[in-house]
Write a structure and sequence with these properties.
By secondary structure, the chain is of the alpha/beta class. It has two domains: 266 residues, TIM Barrel, CATH 3.20.20; 63 residues, Antifreeze-like/N-acetylneuraminic acid synthase C-terminal domain (Type Iii Antifreeze Protein Isoform Hplc 12). Helix content is 30%, strand content 16%. The strands form three sheets. An eight-stranded parallel β-sheet has the order 5-4-3-10-9-8-7-6. A three-stranded antiparallel β-sheet has the order 12-11-13, with no helix packed on it.
Length: 351
């Protein structure tokens, strides 16, 4: 597979600045105005894209009080799946306006479809890519449906086994996706940093040969920034206008100022990676002159013996390198040498 692909005008690859997605999810709290304000805020952070989730409670689950339809613990403990998704879903009749607002800011905008009808709907909006959520990664018919649009896919691996990731990648390839990426993800809300296992990013990249990123549900931005050093080229993070306003995902979302800092820090981390140094000659540049070297530190007469008092290793670095000091002690000066002179082989009579 290819180590890079494109979303719109943006190349996604490890040698490119990280592609950063602001996930809006359910943080609109049921208000279109708030959803539009989130898009506006995302544009101000410097993110590359905003992402929605396209489903209804009835396309993602059913009304049921059976135990398996009820969340037992965690952030949403006590709620039924249908109740939670009814609150968190983004109304489909908002999508066109949200897409237009994002594009007006020059942002890419796409979504996670949760069934085939969502893919069909998003195609009417000319979504430039599709995100497959962690819990949908086992739905290979959905992946195939999205891949057959000829758009690129981003697929989260949250709770998938490697066999399931294999199946998902096969569905994306055989369906005709225009490239795809995998996102390492820990499907906990919030996810504790010690559970993040970021080294998995390197394993996914080596195993599948595609761009790899991070879908990050941890608190703060430290984990996302650290992932850049391990090769993450996509960062997806939830954003809210204010955690204090509540909402289904607010607790593990970043506020706009925090998201802006995340964008800056991830890009700075990537720029700091550079290329590996195989030849360190001249690495210090102009500052190399301030390294230590051997200097004559007292006036010395011709024929006088060099000792540890009149020759020392000091800054700056214009004299002989300090490793020669043991060889020079006990030799004699070839000429009169003034204090503060960098020692050179020509000043040593015994050479």
């Amino acid at each position: 597979m290819s180590q890079q692909f494109r979303i719109g005008d943006r190349v996604i690859a490890t040698d490119q600045s990280p592609y950063i997605i602001a996930e809006l999810s359910g943080n609109h709290n049921g208000e279109l105005g708030r959803a539009l304000a989130l898009v506006d805020a995302a544009a101000q952070t410097g993110a590359d894209a905003v992402k929605l989730q396209t489903y209804t409670a009835d396309t993602i689950t059913i009304v049921s009080d059976r135990p398996e339809f009820r969340i037992e613990d965690g952030l949403w403990a006590g709620r039924t799946l249908h109740d939670l998704y009814a609150e968190a879903s983004t109304p489909w009749d908002w999508h066109e306006e949200l897409f237009a607002r994002a594009r007006g800011h020059g942002l890419h905008v796409f979504s996670s479809p949760f069934d085939h009808t969502a893919v069909d709907f998003l195609e009417t909006l000319d979504a430039p890519a599709y995100k497959i959520a962690s819990f949908e990664l086992v739905d290979t018919p959905l992946i195939t449906k999205a891949a057959r649009t000829g758009k690129p896919l981003i697929m989260s691996t949250g709770i998938a086994s490697y066999g399931e990731i294999d199946d998902a990648c096969r569905a994306a390839r055989e369906g005709g996706a225009d490239g795809f990426a995998l996102l390492h993800c820990i499907s906990a809300y919030p996810a504790a940093p010690e559970t993040m296992r970021l080294q998995t990013i390197k394993t996914l990249a080596a195993t599948y040969g595609v761009p790899v990123g991070l879908s990050d549900h941890s608190l703060g931005s430290a984990v996302a920034v650290a992932s850049i050093a391990l090769g993450a080229c996509i960062i997806e993070k939830h954003m809210t206008l204010a955690r204090a306003d509540g909402g289904p995902d607010a607790e593990f979302s970043l506020e706009p100022d925090e998201f802006k800092q995340l964008v800056a820090d991830c890009r700075m981390a990537h720029s700091a990676l550079g290329e590996p140094l195989y030849d360190r000659k001249g690495i210090g540049g102009a500052n190399a002159q301030f390294r230590r070297s051997l200097y004559v530190t007292q006036d010395v007469k011709a024929g006088e013996v060099f000792n540890e008092t009149n020759v020392r290793s000091i800054r700056p670095g214009l004299g002989l390198v300090p490793k020669h000091l043991p060889d020079i002690i006990g030799t004699t000066a070839a000429d009169d040498i003034a204090r503060g002179t960098p020692l050179a082989w020509g000043l040593i009579a015994d050479r």
